[in-house]
Write a structure and sequence with these properties.
The complex is a heterotrimer of chains A (175), B (167) and C (131).
Chain A (H helix, E strand, L loop, with lengths): L3 E5 L3 E5 L4 E8 L3 E6 L6 E6 L8 H6 L5 H14 L8 E6 L12 H15 L6 E4 L5 E6 L5 E5 L4 E4 L9 E3 L1
Parallel strand pairs in A: 1-3, 6-7
Antiparallel strand pairs in A: 2-5, 3-8, 4-5, 4-6, 8-9, 9-10, 10-11
Helix pairs in contact in A: 2-3
Chain B lengths: L18 H17 L4 E3 L10 E9 L3 E7 L1 H12 L8 H23 L5 E3 L3 E3 L10 E7 L2 E9 L10
Antiparallel strand pairs in B: 1-6, 2-3, 2-4, 2-5, 3-7, 6-7
Helix pairs in contact in B: 1-3, 2-3
Chain C lengths: L2 E6 L3 H13 L4 E7 L2 H10 L4 E4 L8 H9 L9 E5 L4 H9 L4 E4 L4 H12 L8
Parallel strand pairs in C: 1-2, 1-3, 3-4, 4-5
């Protein structure tokens, strides 16, 4: 059966258990993509958020929780559970958080986005299974729902699979 | 502390050319790694320190000295909650104090281990304390801004005390 | 069978942090004991064996190095894998602790994932006997 691509835009999140789907998001600069996959139910989600904290604009957060880490990640977890996913089984990986100058000139937004995800996931009782973050490159990532495998492309480079690295901090590995 | 450790020679933190950069790098790494908080060097305006939560930790070994850590009152709950993975509302006063003490322990040990990796090192248990303004000469001091508030770190070397009976 | 763990650190919040990582790491942890220094740790170990010991170094009373020395000198206790978790990352200390039989050495700061990987490396070695 043909694989269908579910594209996740900026400040967007999609959840599915369709084993023929691939969740994909593009142009991750300072934004963070949070990918989650339940290996038993296959329920999978991909979130692409822009900013760490919703307190700066709670009205916008109410309209679109996926713009911020502190509203987006909990909303995503709720959606995954509603779709039949088990929070305790979730395999979670992060991509993005690059250091870029945004239009407001707020520095280190990439790092702050990344740390927000780490803090919220730690509080939610979730450890990370892989990450491709930092630097100054734009990234694209895709999550294969049938297998839970995830790939990242950095800049114009080769696509690499995101796996756990037994030596400590997670790195992308050559596919 | 262990009586078999060497009697160190008095030195001054400002004689250590790598000290300033080391403390900045270590503070950033510690806060990001275990407290999920970004820290940037900030200008020193110390009005907030009178109400800050502070911890003091002493070290002995190849060099003797002490470190003071100050955390601004509005930053204590976010830092403690981040470390423990709790809601700030769920924190106890004991946990708040213990997290500040542990933060000072990690900052001190990591700074000294990075600065002098070939040295002998023994740390005391950190104690909650009031902030003290040490004389600028000889002490290294930096203030850091985090999104929730401020941190201040001072480190100085002091002459060794004669070996005491073991604890 | 679930693992039995002994965490030795004078900081209650550091013990909480480690305990949290244990619970989130996928290991089935049956019993998680805690001690504030080496003496308390030895008292706990005289009452019940554990599958792994995670110990700090700088603690009031008996420190982690002396604890490791005592474990090393005991024919039974020396078989329990011990991982040092310390803010002391000086080379001499690390070498000494490994020579005293530490199976691993994690210097603070570390991410929860790094601790998880260290636990997997030590407990997954296949020769850790269960309590």
């Amino acid at each position: 059966m043909a694989v269908s691509s579910l594209v996740v835009g900026i400040s967007d999140c999609k959840v599915t258990r369709d084993a023929n789907s691939v969740l994909v998001t593009y142009a991750l600069g300072s934004c963070i993509a949070v990918a989650m996959h339940d290996p038993v139910s296959k329920v999978s989600g991909l979130l692409h958020y822009m900013l760490p904290e919703s307190a700066i604009d709670s009205k916008k957060a109410a309209q679109n929780p996926f713009m911020f880490a502190d509203t987006g990640i909990p909303s995503m977890l709720d959606a995954l559970k509603a779709a039949g996913g088990d929070g305790k089984r979730m395999i979670v990986r992060l991509a993005g958080g690059a250091q870029v100058l945004d239009s407001q000139g707020v520095f280190q937004i990439g790092k702050r986005n990344y740390l927000a995800a780490r803090r919220i996931l730690w509080k939610a009782g979730i450890l990370i299974a892989g990450e491709a973050v930092g630097g100054d490159v734009s990234r694209t990532t895709r999550l294969e729902v049938s297998t839970g495998r995830q790939w990242v492309r950095e800049g114009g480079g080769v696509e690499r699979e995101l796996v756990r690295n037994s030596k400590g901090p997670k790195r992308t590995e050559q596919a | 502390m262990h009586p078999e450790l060497e009697t160190p020679e008095p030195q001054s933190m400002d004689q250590e050319p790598a000290a300033s950069e080391t403390i900045q790098q270590v503070a950033a790494e510690v806060l990001e790694t275990m407290f999920f908080t970004a820290a940037e060097v900030a200008s020193c305006e110390h009005g907030w320190l009178s109400g800050a939560s502070c911890a003091r930790i002493r070290f002995e070994g190849s060099r003797c000295g002490e470190m003071l850590l100050g955390v601004s009152v509005q930053a204590v709950d976010p830092i403690a909650a981040s470390f423990l993975g709790l809601d700030p509302m769920a924190l106890t006063d004991a946990q708040r104090g213990q997290v500040i003490q542990e933060l000072s322990n990690i900052l001190c040990g990591a700074t000294l281990s990075n600065l002098w990796p070939e040295s002998k090192l023994a740390l005391s248990s950190p104690e909650l304390a009031a902030w003290q303004e040490w004389p600028a000469s000889g002490a290294l001091h930096r203030c850091f801004a985090i999104s929730e508030g401020m941190l201040a770190i001072s480190v100085r070397l002091i002459p060794a005390t004669p070996p005491a009976a073991s604890r | 069978m679930p693992y039995s763990v002994l965490i030795v650190d004078d900081s209650p919040v550091m013990r909480s942090f480690i305990k949290r990582v244990l619970g989130l790491s996928g290991f089935e942890v049956g019993e998680c004991r805690e001690a504030g220094n080496g003496e308390e740790a030895l008292r706990q170990l005289s009452a019940q064996r554990v599958d792994i010991i995670l110990t700090d170094i700088n603690m009031p009373g008996m420190n982690g190095e002396e604890l490791l020395r005592r474990l090393c000198a005991d024919g039974v206790l020396k078989t329990i894998p011990t991982v040092v978790i310390s803010t002391d990352a000086t080379n001499e200390r690390m070498v000494r602790m490994i020579e005293l039989g530490a199976r691993g050495y994690l210097s603070k700061p570390f991410t929860p994932e790094t601790l998880r990987e260290e636990l997997e490396r030590v407990l997954g070695a296949g020769d850790a006997s269960r309590a």
